[in-house]
Amino acid sequence: LRSGELLVGLGTICMGAALIGRDTWRWGTIVVFAGVLLIIAGGVINRQYIRELLFFRGAARRGEEGEVPTPPGPEPRLRIR
Asked: What is d(CA 32, CA 18) in angstroms, rounded to the nearest whole number?
């Protein structure tokens, strides 16, 4: 979902701002907490996409219903000349 991507992006921007501000910026701690919450919220919203991405259940693994993938044949023997 776009809203989850937006939250993760905003959380990343918050983390970047906290790193740029270093220890001298007075809002650094608050921005880090906000960034962590935004990244977690974005991950929760996009949990289905993240699950599919991590376990690689995308279009490359999908087939027709009841279709059994054919096992790969023997690999050709390599000759070194």
From this structure: 6
